[in-house]
Structures are given as structure tokens and as C-alpha cells.
């Protein structure tokens, strides 16, 4: 099979979206293996760590529905820009604080920000798909994020082990997330066919984007 004929490389919107997911997946996952260790190092008990991680998931889930509405209102790209901008600061907070409550609150906020990003991410994916190959396109989008997450977790754990420094990992994560934000701003665009459809609509809400 000629790789150039693969839908991932033929469809520019899908390729750019998958690249964004891959960069963010790596960058975000730098933090995954070290956060429990970081919490433990500043004196947070195992029970509290479990509770905070549970609240991370609850916050992430609950915030997705209202921000799905916000995505329709202000535009999916703008919402994702805001979410990635906020997420880039999350690792910095871990660096500058050793206060238990602030660190715990920051982790819950981290989950909420990821929840804010989710509806916008899926919205952008939906218009990046090839209509006749929706399943295949979705598979690529999911796979690159998972692959990036695996790579990022290995790198994050390795750096923390070799340098004995959580702050270095957090700094790398922040820089990578910021890089994904820059990529989003300049590379993610609405397809021409989508913009033409938008111009024909009387209601412009669904067409709002950057």
C-alpha cells in the first residue's frame, strides 16, 4: 500500500489535527507518571491523593456538557485555544508551589481544563473527517493521542529518574503544551467546504471560529 494514498496523508485537515493531538498527547503525558510521586513528596497522603484524582475525573466529566454549549457559541477553535492556554500554566503552578491545598486544587483544575478542551476537540475532529471514512479517521485521531501519551509518560518518568527533578518534567510539559497551542493557532483551519456551508446559513452560531 502506498503511504501517500493513506487518508491520514491525503487529507490535510486530518493530518494537522492528528499532529496537534500527538504533540499535546506527548506533552501532557510528561506529567502522568510523576504527579502521584510529586504529591507524595510534598506530604500528601495516599488517601488524599486518591480522593483528589477522583475529583479530577468528576470535574472533567461534569464540565464537558456546559462547555459543549460554549464551543457552539464562541467557536471550537477559540475554546480550544483558551483551554490549551490555561493548560500550559498548570505545570507551572506545580513548580512554584509546595502547598498541599494549592497542589491538590491545581490538579482538580487540570481535570476541569481537560474537560473544557474535550467538546472543542471532538468538534474540530468532526469537520476534519473524510465522510466516507469516518471510522478510519477517528481511529487515527484516537491512536495518535494514545501513542503520544505512551511516549510522553516514558520520557517524563525517565527525565524525573535521571535528573531527580519533578520541576524539569513540569517545565517540559508546559513548553510542549505551549507548542501545541502555537500549532493550533496557525495550522488548524476550517475546510473550505465547511466555510461555504456556513456562509449559506442564516444562523452564524455554528460557524464561529478563529
TrEMBL record:
Residues 13-210 form the Major facilitator superfamily (MFS) profile domain. One of its GO terms (molecular function) is transmembrane transporter activity. GO terms for cellular component: plasma membrane. Keywords: Membrane, Transmembrane, Transmembrane helix, Transport. Gene3D superfamilies: MFS general substrate transporter like domains (1.20.1250.20). Pfam families: MFS_1. InterPro entries: MFS, MFS_dom, MFS_trans_sf. The keyword Acyltransferase does not apply. The chain crosses the membrane at residues 14-31, 78-96, 108-125, 137-160, 166-186. It is found in: Cell membrane. PROSITE patterns: MFS. It is a multi-pass membrane protein. This is Major facilitator superfamily (MFS) profile domain-containing protein. It comes from Clostridium thermobutyricum.
Amino acid at each position: 500500500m502506498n503511504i501517500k494514498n493513506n487518508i491520514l496523508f491525503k487529507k490535510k485537515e486530518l493530518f494537522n489535527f492528528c499532529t496537534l493531538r500527538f504533540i499535546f498527547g506527548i506533552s501532557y503525558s510528561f506529567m502522568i507518571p510523576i504527579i502521584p510521586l510529586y504529591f507524595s513528596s510534598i506530604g500528601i497522603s495516599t488517601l488524599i491523593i486518591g480522593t483528589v484524582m477522583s475529583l479530577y475525573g468528576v470535574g472533567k466529566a461534569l464540565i464537558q456538557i456546559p462547555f459543549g454549549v460554549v464551543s457552539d457559541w464562541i467557536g471550537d477553535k477559540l475554546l480550544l485555544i483558551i483551554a490549551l492556554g490555561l493548560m500550559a500554566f498548570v505545570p507551572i503552578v506545580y513548580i512554584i508551589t509546595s502547598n498541599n491545598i494549592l497542589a491538590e486544587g491545581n490538579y482538580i483544575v487540570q481535570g476541569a481544563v481537560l474537560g473544557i478542551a474535550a467538546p472543542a476537540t471532538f468538534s474540530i475532529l468532526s469537520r476534519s473527517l473524510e465522510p466516507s471514512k469516518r471510522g478510519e479517521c477517528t481511529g487515527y485521531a484516537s491512536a495518535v493521542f494514545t501513542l503520544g501519551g505512551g511516549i510522553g509518560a516514558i520520557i517524563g518518568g525517565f527525565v524525573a529518574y535521571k535528573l531527580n527533578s519533578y520541576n524539569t518534567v513540569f517545565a517540559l510539559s508546559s513548553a510542549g503544551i505551549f507548542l501545541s497551542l502555537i500549532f493550533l493557532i496557525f495550522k488548524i483551519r476550517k475546510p473550505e467546504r465547511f466555510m461555504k456551508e456556513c456562509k449559506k446559513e442564516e444562523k452564524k452560531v455554528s460557524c464561529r471560529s478563529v
